[in-house]
Predict the structure.
Amino acid sequence: MRISDATRMDRLVSNTSRLEGKIATVSQRVSSGIALDVPSTDPVQASAYLRARGNLGRMKGYADAIRDGKGELELAEGSLTQAQDIIARGREIALQAANSTYSAVDRSQFAAELGQLRDQLLASANQEGPNGYLFGGSKMDAPPFSAAGIFQGNGDQRLLEVSPGFTIATNASGAQAFTAAGGQDVFSLFAQLQTAVTSNDVNAIATTGKLIADAHQQVGTARGEVGYTMQRIDLADSAQNMMQILWKQRQGEASEIDPAQVYSELSALQNTLTQSVSVARTQLQTLSVNRFG
Amino acid sequence: MGIALSNLLSVARDAMAVNAKALDITGQNVANVNTAGYARRRAEIQARGTSRDSYGGVTIGSITRAADDLTQRRLLDVRGQETSARQRSDSLASVEAVFNDANGTGLAGGLVKLFDSFNSLASNPRDTTARNGVLSAAQSVVDDFTMATRTIDGARADIFAQAQGYTKQINEIGVGIAALSGSIQSSLAAGQDASDLLDKRDMLLRNLSEIVDVQTASNPDGTILVRAAGQSLVEGNSANTLSVTLDTPGALAFKISVAGSPAMGFSAQNMGGKLGGMRQARDEDMAETRKKLDALAADLATAVNGLHSAGFGTDGVAGRNLFTFTAANPAHTLAIDPALAGHPERVAAASSLASSAGGNDVARQIAGLQSTPSTASGTKTLIESYADLVGDLGLRRQKATGDAEVKGALADQIQALHQQTSGVSLDEEMVDLTRYQRAYEASSKLLKTFDELMRGLIQSL
């Protein structure tokens, strides 16, 4: 077999340049930490990377919704807790006022306190969050309860998706918590109690007092529902955290280098290049000595 | 005996001349060891027979050119395939760079941010910042689509300009091959050595095969027929003219013009060479990517608009689209509806007039498009559709790069095979140099011996 000098030189050049090209590519991967320098490096992984990225984006969306939803629910829970405390004080007053030993002055003080409690209750029911009134549904142009305690909101729920296909309401129903729709009209009861205390109508005080106890339970139920929703959000949060870790892992697998494999590949290529250059040097020296030495 | 001594003189003279010529040819080979396309020469030394009219001795029967037409033709073919695949891969590199999401470019980030912005709006429907966030994210998506289409369209325009340049080059090479064929024909007819001309023509053929895949057929008179994509580029000593324009859909349209006849279009499917690689990258790969990008833009705008137009802004108005686009060129014409630009209150988040001040149903539904099949086929999400686009483009370039490597290795093997016959080996030439030098010295010795014999003869008289 004849080996021409052109073939010999071409091989020396092409072997070293091919190895140098490979080393440059692998070095770039090592320095950037990214295996997918371009999609054609591994089209299947490039596609998988994008799917993982899309899913990660969705998981981030769920995480944000969970954070925002939890914030609003915590506010609602706080307002309902406050409302429950106020109603509990109203019930205490009812129990005390039902005792005929209290004087007219005492009853007058009870009546005044009941008026203040009703105002505080109204403030709790009209509490605002970052997205408007907590208990008014989607109606935002006026407080959910008028000064007379009339509900003027709606029953719309503000839903947020916190995991695939799973939505939660981030607002509690004002109607269910404070109006007859939930069993008792809380503001009306406070007005009735105030009237009964003022007129020293012991029977009416006792009857209204019992109903206020029902109202306390009614608001407690609304608060419990908020708490239950928060528990569901926490479960969704754990699930999305786990999914986020998995998708991050998948994204990393698709796009990032395996350090052990890449360093080993780089080392092998560098060794091969060293040997190739050594062979080339020997060949060139041998040829020069034999022909022209 | 007198006649014999005279023959000896002639034999010695011829031997010196033949070996001097052989040394000359060896020198020519050594000098051209690095000349591209040079096929080594060989002096075919023949013994001259002795007869009544001939004194015998030696002569150079011919100077042969160690050409291997079979491997030359195979090399032209495979080099054409290699350059085609390499050019296809190189042309796709600039387009692929636009969809390199793992390195920070691409559309995925923008799409994810758009849906994320609707998600934030769903959480904070009354927040003006969240509404501006939607408009900002939508503008980023528009910008990403615009940049991608500009890159693809720009690459396609560049390739057309390059194709025109290469077509001109093909025509110039064709004229050169035809002219050389004419000269070769004349030289051979006159019994002259046409090796240098053949070397030059082979080099032109090699240059041509890098631009377009060529097939050749030799004629007995020394001319050749050169064909590409089934069309004759050179016939004998006349060259035809190739031209390229764009057809109505905008694809490269090649025409061949034979002298005296109108230009005829032909299919360029198997054109090969750089021109073939460009055509495939431009009119198959990039066209397909562009088509998918258009479909993605149309799917995105249609899906978002479908929900957005049913929703209400905080100004209580419904029926507005978020995006506009033209059906003929969706990706490039995608834009934010001018009615919404600078008007965050017009971004729809609520599903009813009553809830327009704080409702979030529509924003939530649009955010949900990220995980809901919303392409025209109804089976893929927009991100999945984009992943398919990127995967398909990656596969196309990967195949082109792989083909280039395989064909390149094959071409190198055939090149080595061709060089095995045609290439110059300095080792071999050094041996020849010594051999002819020694033969020349021996011939000189012969002449010296004759001289001594003659001197002895003259002195004895």
